[in-house]
Amino acid sequence: MSTSPVLALRSLLFNLFFFGWTTVYCLAVLPGYPFYSPRTMRQVARAWQRVLLVGLRVIVGLTHEVRGREHIPLGPVVIACKHQSAWETVACHALLDEIAVALKEELTRIPVFGWYLLRAGSIRIDRGAASGAIRSLVAGARREVALGVSVLIFPEGTRRDPDALPDYKPGVAAVYNAVRLPVVPTALNSGLYWRRRGFIKYPGRIVLEFLPPIPPGLPRPEFMRRLEQAIETATARLVAEGRRR
């Protein structure tokens, strides 16, 4: 995709809107913070994200489509989502009900914003050591599932370009074995429009697709094979669909 002055201006305006709205909203809801339950905090996050998505549509011309909601079982589940962009992290609560997001611990250290992340039940991942990261991820997932909350995890651990080779980490298998719940593979093509380290946001339509769940109880190698195959096959299809547009 080419970059034009108009795209650069729209991207700049959206960034100003993003940080301006986030700052105003964080300060506006701060007086109620001591009284918010995790459920209320997730509702607060949902309202924040919905306004961001409207801004993305109006300023940039970037919309989204969600497919396959019928594949999400009732009750707590694990959503294992492809991670290509910041978009899925600022849209998750607007798209999913009662979800706890697994995220890097550094984000929870941001003043005020980090407080909100923790109050919402976000799962901190200590990335200082592999074993510590898995322990913190599993402990957080068990805690939220016991409260009836689903878990959103990015199996590759970080954002990946649409054409990058898959790099699935063991944390998702550890969570799968620990919580013994269905895992819903989730594919998307957000990296085509909001790139991993890019300033420009491109107009178009992001597609996020929930795929048939993987049942609990499979051996780890079989689970990882099925998860990667499902996500990568669907992601390749969605990326190709986006590029044809």
Describe the protein's architecture and organization.
With 245 residues, the chain is an alpha/beta fold. The chain is 45% helix and 15% strand. It contains seven helices and seven strands. The chain has a seven-stranded mixed β-sheet with strand order 1-7-6-2-5-3-4, sandwiched between helices. The N and C termini lie close together (11 Å).
Helix-strand layout with pairing:
Blueprint: H1 5-29, H2 38-60, E1 62-67, E2 78-81, H3 92-95, E3 99-104, H4 113-119, E4 123-125, H5 130-146, E5 150-153, H6 171-179, E6 183-188, E7 204-210, H7 220-244
Parallel strand pairs: 1-7, 2-5, 2-6, 3-4, 3-5
Antiparallel strand pairs: 6-7
Note the main attributes of this structure.
single chain; globular; 7 helices; 245 residues; seven-stranded mixed sheet
Largest sheet: 7 strands, mixed
* Element string (H = helix, E = strand): HHEEHEHEHEHEEH
The average pLDDT value, as a whole number, equals 94
Q: Report the principal-axis shape.
A: globular
Structural class: alpha/beta
Strand content: 5-15%
Across the major sheet, the strand order is 1-7-6-2-5-3-4
Helix content: 40-55%
Task: Report the radius of gyration as a whole number of Å.
Answer: 18 Å
